Amino acid sequence: MxxxxxxxxxxxxxxxxxxxxxxxxxxxxxxxxxLALLVGIVGMFDLRLLGMVKAxxxxxxxRFLPWAVVGFVLCVVSGLSFVTGLGANLEGVHPYSVLISxxxxxxxxxxxxxxxxxxxAFYLTxxxxxxxxxxxxxxxxxxxxxxxxxxxxxxxxxxWVGRLIPWGL
Amino acid sequence: MEFLLWLEHSGLATWVRxxxxxxxxxxxxxLLAVHAIGxxxxxxPNVVVDLRILGYGRGVPLASLEGFFRLMWVGFxxxxxxxxxxxxxxxxxxxxxxIFYVKLGSIxxxxxxxxxxxxxxxxxxxxxxxxxxxxxxxxxxxxSLALWAVAIVSGRLMAYNGDVRWATLTxxxxxxxxxxxxxxxxxxxTRGPGWSxxxxxxx
Lengths: 169, 203
Known about the structure:
The complex is a heterodimer of chains A (about 170) and B (about 200). Chain A is an all-alpha fold. Chain A has one domain. Chain A is built from ten helices and no strands. Chain A has helices at about 1-10, 15-20, 25-50, 60, 65-85, 85-90, 95-100, 105-125, 125-130, 140-165. The model of chain A has no long low-confidence stretch (mean pLDDT about 90). Chain B has helices at about 1-10, 10-20, 30-55, 70-85, 90-95, 100-125, 135-155, 160-190, 195-200. Chain B is globular. The interface of A and B includes residues 53 and 159 of A.
């Protein structure tokens, strides 16, 4: 399994891009802009379900979620560039050795995976369609609140451990 | 300069910068993490308000978004405070760097802009139900997006030297130009060349 992952981490290597004057810093800018969109908008949705801004009707608010997806794509593209282009920044470092040794990166990937499972649970438990009926002032079902609280904690955790990654290298 | 050096070598700055508690150079990295979370709390909701003013998600009554202003202010103060503690750790570098003042200036303008949006959209004429946002509100929404973009870009570029900054700005502007060309191209393909006249009329 190890060599397999190691091969694929080096295959579409971003080292040429990340070795330029502008590659790394440009990806950082895109990563932070994406983070603000993704966690900002998903956080708003979670807080609405938790009852913070109940005046907002839930179904129409979903029109903003594609912008969170834009943020997610920005973060994934720039994030993958960081990992696979790391060798350009730190001479001779293989992305695989970072993946197996950097606790913060591992926690971040774990939190993102859990957030994905949480989202899956949101759909599979029927909460996704249940909350669509919530108009202004309506209270979300308890299960939806649990999922929203989980999502909010996980995304804050993703930012937190993500910011620590450079110190785990 | 002497004051900046004193600030940088003060007990608090040294502790924040060099303490290695909890195996993660705590508190320095924790402050950085808080700074990133505050960014998401402030800029994310502000972008949603801007997009709503510009016509996205019309099903959401603009007035209902006012509750998110509390969240934005918490994000702002989290970042003002974490920034204030982070500043002395590199006082000399930051306070002698023009781009640091670009960052602070754009944030100050963005916050004033946000207050103007609040007055215009939630207190003024646009606040009435079913009234489409005024031209002034739309202008404020666009300047808001631009100012936050400048704030994020300059904030990130503070970590780099002059060569990297110019190269990054060039790359970023090239990327945005490419996206603009693709977006305009798509509009022409999907709506025909008449889009420009219809856009003109809609304004």
